[in-house]
Design goal:
alpha+beta, 43% helix, Immunoglobulin-like, 4-stranded antiparallel sheet, 20% strand, 5-stranded antiparallel sheet, 15 helices, 2 domains
Length: 454
């Protein structure tokens, strides 16, 4: 190959030698794999829209309430006290992505990544519908501003803005819940001006990404494409060109590749898959469908471009499992099992008892010393719990600020109490005391705190 032919390794394909943007005009894809991706994308989009409205035990299926430090994942509620459990879940997810990438390449990017789904299955489909396929779009963009061009661009970008705003509001429901979102919609926007401004800004970012920045998110911003250089090996299944079957290229040569460049014309990032694995490739399968059409026309077997590993093409070796896959699988299994154990065995309530800041001990006339404490109890069950706090380690009494301790299901109880301990029970200026939280006279949790005395 000449140096010019190898320039694809020097810079992203959508950038010229001076570093300027080159717009990619991809041909509208069609075929078996594209239909499969479309159906899968519809399922993911429906799931994304429906999640805030689905209820499990009167709670959203998924809620990421960062402001209140409350997270609901498939009906299971995690509070700030469950950070360790959430960290295990996130680590398991990251390891799953790593294992999946090692085995199946960037299939996440082509099939499940929100950037790909929104761009390819929503925004590009609108673009194809209004402006036509790649040749018509290129001609329209390069041509003068006629009435037809103004009409088409206005209609397209108007729909893009509307969809960007709708996307922002759906994402908002994932963080606030559908009930709170409905309240925000009904209220005058002046009451939530800061939130309204944030929504407009985020919508503007979405509009800019899918109208102008587009595939550069994958080729220039997303770190996942660069990770594949570390994660992939010769056993990883990726969208591959069968060079043993396709070379030498050309209609008069012996190889099956007729060098028609149809695989390039349909690629949303503009690469030539025949050059091998590249960071711009998102494994979207568009080139597979297009090449199979050419193979059908030329009466050759499909699969010149297909899902395959380097070892499969070179040696006919089809197995994807190796020592690295097995090692990742074992680590993932251990960590996820630990997550399941910690989740199942976590206490039904989470108690925090801390001395009230800024207050010292109090000497009382009945020969007792008192300290004031702040009490917080989080109920992690779906049942209302009447609770009682008792002192386990010493003789003494507790005076609550209220008359009862009833914690609603998935609720939080906060109160203040005073602990009185006789002086003869105290041997130092700082004494460790232990409290017990009881539900119907059954001890369900203990908590230790410090008692300060003269």
């Amino acid at each position: 190959m000449s140096i010019a032919e190898l320039s694809f390794r020097d810079r992203p394909i959508n950038m010229d030698a001076k570093g300027s943007r080159k717009w990619v005009y991809a041909k509208k894809p069609s075929g078996k794999w594209y239909r499969r991706r479309t159906l899968f994308s519809w399922f993911l989009l429906l799931f994304w829209i429906a999640v805030p409205w689905i209820r499990v035990n009167e709670n959203p299926l998924i809620l990421l309430d960062i402001a209140n430090r409350k997270f609901i994942i498939f009906g299971a509620i995690f509070w700030a006290q469950d950070t360790f459990i959430l960290a295990l879940l996130m680590l398991s997810f990251v390891l799953f992505i790593v294992l999946f990438t090692v085995t199946f390449g960037r299939i996440w990017c082509g099939w499940a990544c929100p950037q790909t789904i929104f761009l390819e299955m929503i925004f590009r489909k609108i673009e194809y519908l209004i402006e036509g396929d790649y040749k018509k779009r290129y001609k329209l963009d390069q041509g003068p501003w006629t009435g037809e061009k103004i009409l088409k661009k206005t209609l397209k970008h108007g729909l893009f803005i509307f969809i960007a705003i709708a996307m922002t509001n759906v994402f908002l429901m994932w963080f606030t819940g559908s009930e709170r979102w409905l309240e925000l919609v009904r209220e005058p926007f002046r009451q939530n001006l800061s939130g309204f401004i944030v929504m407009i800004v985020v919508s503007g970012v979405f509009y800019w990404i899918y109208s102008f920045f587009r595939e550069q998110v994958c080729t220039m911003v997303c770190p996942y494409g660069r990770m594949q250089g570390v994660l992939l090996d010769s056993n990883s299944i990726v969208v591959s060109y069968d060079y043993k079957r396709g070379e030498p290229r050309g209609t008069k040569n012996e190889g099956d590749c007729i060098d028609c460049h149809q695989c390039v014309s349909v690629c949303p990032t503009g690469i030539d898959i025949r050059n091998g694995t590249q960071l711009e490739c998102i494994n979207c399968t568009a080139c597979i469908d297009q090449c199979n059409k050419i193979m059908h026309i030329t009466n050759k077997a499909p699969g010149l471009i297909r899902y395959a590993s380097e070892k499969t093409i070179k040696e006919g070796h089809a197995s994807v499992w190796n020592t690295r896959n097995r090692a990742y699988s074992v680590v993932l299994l251990v960590i996820f099992s630990f997550f399941i154990y910690t989740f199942v065995s976590r206490p039904v309530i989470e108690t925090t008892i801390l001395r009230t800041p800024g207050l010292l001990f109090q000497e009382n006339g009945d020969n007792t010393i008192s300290n004031v404490y702040n009490l917080t109890i989080v109920n992690k069950t779906h049942e209302e719990m009447p609770l009682e706090i008792r002192l386990l380690s010493h003789k003494g009494r507790i005076q609550m600020a209220g008359n009862s301790m009833i914690v609603k299901d998935q609720g939080r109880f906060e109160s203040t109490f005073i602990l009185f301990i006789p002086k003869e029970e105290l041997n130092s200026d700082k004494t460790e005391v232990e409290f017990g939280i009881f539900n119907n006279n059954e001890l369900i949790e203990t908590y230790k705190a410090t008692f300060v005395s003269p």
